[in-house]
Amino acid sequence: MTANKNLSETLFKPKFDYPETSSLIQRSGLNSNSSRSMLDGEGRQNWYRMINRLSWHWHGLPLLDIEEVLARIAVSRKKRTNENWLDTVIGYQLGNWIYEFLAQSVVWQQKAEQYHSSDDEQTISQNCHKAWLTASLFAGLASYPYFRNDDLSTQAQVFASRYYREAMNYSPYQIKELDFLVENKTVKAILHTPLKKGDEPRVFPIVFLCSGLSNLQSDFYQYFVNYLAPLGVGLLTVDTPSIGASKQFNLSQNTSVIHQAILEQIKSVPLIDYDKIILLGYRFGANIAMRLAYLMPNQIKGVINVAPVIHQFFTDRQMQSQLPAIYRDIIASSLDHNSISDQQLLAELQFFSLKEQRLLTRPCAMPILNIYYEGDSMSSLDDIKLLTSSKKVSLIHIKSLALMKSLEQSSKQSSQWIEALIK
Q: Does 14 sit behind a cis peptide bond, omega within 30 degrees of 0 on the bond before it?
């Protein structure tokens, strides 16, 4: 606890010599656009980042805290990199995105330490778990959009990981950190088991998460608790190449390099039912999941694709022209480009299309569940029609509902699909 506190105090001294996040990726070409996506939030003219309050809340953050932090950022009169973008305050100081969200993270860290001094053991466990988890989520949000050359973001991710580890110590479930070797580098993954503390060992199916470029692996704990653990299903998470614990890997057209290596080593992990591994591809992660479905069909029981991004986004210039600046910057950073033209960036994207890679020329060999969100700016029904299987293909079409309701609907229906698949 003391080490956490001292490190927080050291980091939280205001500094003005850090480059501001929006200035780190130099691009030339297309103008910035605003957009709205049910899953990604809103891209507004007065914010550089996508603002996604309800999605952040769904992952476990208190709405009032979120609004408080956004308000502190918005009212700041400090100098900004771009005066049209509220979240571009220069320097690690009041009003800066990373500073303010990390400050909120430390509020919850301090609550966890206060709860720890309680006399009631059950109260300690429950309250500390929630407080450390909230601290982790705020630190992770502070680091968004996870640019590799953003030193402050990297430090925030260190806090997110450390606080998540503290939270898992108080989780009612057995949570295990795992190391895998990928191209002679160590990658850290987390196995969330459905076993309660004190349960006898038993094998269980797992969902192997293939996340996108806008989430850390620590963002999905609530999904595990609410929808997988009640089924007796575990969740294996790992960060996408170029992000978080997988930062040392460039994103390339071989998007599944880390996940494939883990599947090849998975039998070294006890308790997992190796015949019941289900892939969950979330957004860009569906590209990873479907690559694995074709490359390693004998090790996969089924695939769930949530708002999949597998072809049109990578080749359709009109769709790409609607992207907010931050999306292009995220992709550029993931490809390890600190300076690039939009023309060059869009040219590189076409190599990520699974259709262009000739992987979609035949059906894959396991059941598929596709979840489509109506009006999604990055995923299309045309893409989903490309995802065929020699087994059953199911589609959940989510209408333009309130975000919380739609997330709950798709999560509940997908968990029912998982339950039927593992019987």
A: no
